[in-house]
Design goal:
There is one protein chain. With about 350 residues, the chain is mainly α. It is about 85% helix and about 0% strand. α7 (about 190-230) runs antiparallel to α10 (about 270-295). It starts with 5 loop residues before the first helix and ends in a 10-residue tail after the last helix.
Length: about 350
């Protein structure tokens, strides 16, 4: 028998291992897609818990019972959230009517440029392309037998919101108890490493949420003021979208910047659009180079390509919420893997 070349043998050994890893990843992806109605609320609940734990601990330190402290934190959070929505939603709804015509006009201008501009495309070809894109968008929100109808979607959203609040409530109230329960089922020799990994995951969530919110407020205020000063339409809705886009690092900032420039171009002309574009570029560079490293710390040391792929994969598995959770989940995986490889001295863990 002819001996196998060492290189071929090594490649074969790596190939079957990679096939097994790929198959396991595929199965996990299918399981995550099936369980998205549980996994997505669980992920959002952990993010929400990072907001509720500090005030709850503050109250407990002042001799408030944990149950009462948790209820106070949750109710105050819901009250603040409701007040913000009450203050922001009316102007967003009022000005949103100006946003849709602006985007439609931008599409019309783009279609004319493709026909009359340097590309010189056929008008029928461009019109057919736009019609196909619109049909694709309509199919994405269609309610045929293959997709959930609107009533089921509303039910899932309500159920998911309730499940998120319930999970977050118990994470805040019984967090230490749950931590001890989990660590108690880890072999004693591995408990210090498990505790380091849990601490790294929790710290990553907190830094990510605080950092994204900080960047979102800064970008939304500056872009909204730039649109208002240049007389552009829909300054408040674009500012609101810019704030939400901050929770999708790199991808969201790019989309929000393009949206602001397009709205300004259509509503106020090229001069205003140029000003808004310069402001958006300066703000994004300032955030990426100076503010983001400060507010995120080590929580989000991810390459932009990794972030883009994570957002795309999350959107494919869980839609909007999947894209929202993709970056913090990826950051948690990276940081917990780093914590698992550390080898500091032993840590005292309660049994």
């Amino acid at each position: 028998m002819t001996p196998v070349h060492p290189v071929v043998e090594r490649l074969a050994s790596w190939s079957w291992r990679l096939l097994v890893i790929g198959g396991a990843a595929f199965v996990l992806g299918l399981a995550a897609a099936r369980l998205r109605l549980v996994l997505l609320p669980l992920g959002v609940a952990f993010l929400l818990a990072t907001v509720l734990v500090p005030p709850t601990r503050w109250l407990v330190a002042r001799r408030v019972r944990p149950l009462l402290a948790t209820w106070i934190s949750v109710l105050v959070f819901l009250g603040v959230l409701g007040a913000v929505c009450f203050a922001v939603l009316p102007p967003v709804v009022d000005q949103f009517s100006d946003l849709s015509p602006a985007l439609t006009e931008a599409l019309d201008d783009g279609e004319r440029w493709l026909v009359d501009g340097p590309l010189g495309l056929e008008a029928d070809t461009v019109a057919d392309l736009r019609e196909r894109l619109e049909e694709s968008g309509d199919r994405a929100f269609a309610t045929d037998g293959a997709l959930l109808d609107s009533a089921v979607i509303v039910g899932e959203v309500v159920a998911g919101a309730i499940l998120t609040l319930v999970i977050a409530f118990f994470l805040v109230k019984d967090g230490p108890v749950l931590q001890r329960w989990v660590l108690g089922r880890v072999p004693a020799v591995h408990r210090p490493r498990a505790q380091r990994m849990g601490s790294a995951a929790w710290s990553t969530l907190g830094h990510y949420l605080a950092g994204a919110a900080t960047l979102g407020v800064v970008e939304a205020v500056i872009i909204g003021v730039a649109l208002a000063v240049t007389g552009s339409a829909a300054a408040v809705p674009v500012a609101a979208i810019t704030f939400l886009a901050a929770f999708f690092p790199f991808v969201g900032a790019l989309v929000a910047g393009i949206l602001a420039v397009v709205v300004s171009l259509v509503s106020s002309g090229p001069e205003a659009a140029l000003i808004v574009a310069i402001v958006a570029i300066v703000v994004q560079q300032f955030d990426n180079d100076l503010l983001a490293p400060l507010v995120y710390g080590r929580a989000l040391h991810l390459h932009p390509l990794v972030v883009i792929l994570a957002v795309a994969g999350g959107a494919a598995v869980g839609g909007f919420l999947g894209a929202f959770l993709a970056v913090p989940v990826t950051a948690i995986v990276v940081n917990t893997a780093g914590a698992a490889s550390d080898t500091p001295g032993p840590v005292e863990v309660d049994p």
